[in-house]
Design brief:
alpha/beta, Archaeosine Trna-guanine Transglycosylase, Chain: A, domain 4, Rossmann fold, six-stranded mixed beta sheet, 27% helix, binds S-adenosyl-L-homocysteine
């Protein structure tokens, strides 16, 4: 097996258990490396650290799969590993729909597997894990006997690994418009053309968290995608709900979802740029009891983090201005580049500029089928905050 030796001075990150090794942290490689190979990683003084996969084309040279030398990385390893992922989800009570594999947090760097009842959507975002796609598919077939498996590898980050963007069936073809049940409500999910894997499972508990504050309320949602929060609001007794998204496809799906749940009389969706509309309505003096915001990441890299901060501040400021005194702001951020503390600071700045007093009702993160590993920042990414606005 190929041996990779770290430099003498290595980042505490690796020593403390982080699974990524950057190319500039490596002293030497013994053996003829092919991209995707499984290698053994050693410290400069030849102490075994772990086994992982390598890609000389990527800045992240090695991603560790295990720190146990006895582990053999083969088909069986993936079967057992996926079984453990499933056992964990069963243990914590996330079975019908769940993120079955959450990459680094489950010991499978860059592998995402979302389970939508009998259907599975997978993403293999690095060469080394992409190599094992057949083993992953076999494991899913063995454990679940699924109705269908679909690959959503149409993700730009794959190009950093020298991989093409692609999507398609990894099982016999099936109707990729499926219906899932969440919190007793039903949602159309477009596995083939929806965003990411088709549906944002990470907010499933947060959607429940609005249950009481939306009762009898006039609710405005922005960045609604397929309308999940808004349809929850209508179901929980909101007087009226209006949802906005810039994507016409998302809005069409959201309106279908409202019908599917019989709330179309009080819950409708429109295509709009939330930045423009919220600003305009602020000027016009429109008011709501609850405003819900779940914008996209605004940035993908640390270099342009300021762009994200400005975006979050701006949209939350505009949202707060639309809230009647005593009403609520329900606001999320899904990028790990903005940590929980920074996010709260941004909301505080927005409140100051809007000249509104706020108090925190709840501050949550992603659902526990997306476990968080301390020290691995990219595993804690979702912030979900409810504040009362005076
Ligand atoms: N709340 C949703 C997820 C939202 S994802 C859920 O729980 O399922 C973010 C959404 O913001 C996407 O649907 C995207 O189309 C939309 N979006 C991005 N920029 C926007 C803008 N300027 N105005 C309105 N919507 C926007």
């Amino acid at each position: 097996m190929i041996s990779v030796y770290l430099k003498r001075k290595i980042a505490p990150r690796v020593a403390n258990g982080h699974p990524w090794v950057f190319a500039n942290e490596v002293e030497r490689i013994d053996g003829d490396v092919q991209g995707g190979d499984v290698v053994e990683l050693f410290s400069h003084d030849k102490k075994f650290i772990g086994k992982g996969y390598i890609n000389p084309k990527s800045q992240i040279l090695v991603r560790l799969l295990t720190r146990n030398r006895a582990d053999v990385i083969n088909e069986h390893y993936f079967l057992e590993g996926l079984r453990q992922c499933w056992d964990y989800r069963k243990k914590i009570g996330y079975t019908e729909n769940c993120r079955l594999v959450f990459g680094e947090a489950d010991g499978f760097p860059q592998l995402i597997v979302d389970k939508f009842n009998d259907y599975f959507v997978i993403q293999t975002l690095a060469l080394g894990i992409d190599t094992w796609k057949p083993a992953i598919v076999n494991a899913i077939n063995t454990i679940f006997e699924p109705k269908g498996i679909y690959e959503r590898n149409d993700v730009p980050v794959r190009e950093l690994e020298g991989l093409p963007q692609q999507k398609g069936f990894l099982s016999a073809p099936f109707d990729t418009q499926i219906i899932i049940t969440e919190n007793g409500l039903r949602f159309h999910v477009d596995i083939e053309n929806g965003q990411k894997t088709g549906y944002f499972l990470d907010q499933q508990d947060n959607r429940k968290a609005i249950q009481h504050i939306v009762k009898d309320a006039e609710v405005l949602g922005a960045f609604t995608y397929t309308g999940t929060f808004e349809i929850h609001a209508a179901h929980y007794g909101a007087k009226s709900v209006l949802g906005l998204d810039i994507s016409a496809n998302a809005v069409a799906q959201a309106n279908r979802n409202a019908e599917l749940n019989g709330v179309q009389d009080r819950c409708r969706f429109e295509t709009a740029n939330a930045f423009d509309v919220l600003k305009q309505w602020g000027k016009e003096g429109k008011q709501y009891d609850v405003v819900m915001l779940d914008p996209p990441a605004f940035t993908k890299s640390r270099e342009t983090i300021q762009k994200a901060i400005t975006g979050y501040k701006e949209i939350n400021l505009r949202g707060m201005k639309l809230i009647r005194p005593g009403g609520f702001l329900v606001t999320s951020s899904c990028t790990n580049l903005v940590g929980p503390e920074l996010f709260l600071q941004i909301i505080e700045m927005a409140a100051k500029d809007a000249r509104r007093k706020i108090r925190q009702v709840t501050f949550q993160t992603q659902a526990p089928d997306h476990p968080i590993i301390w020290g691995m920042e990219n595993t804690q990414y979702l912030k979900f905050l409810v504040v009362q606005v005076q």
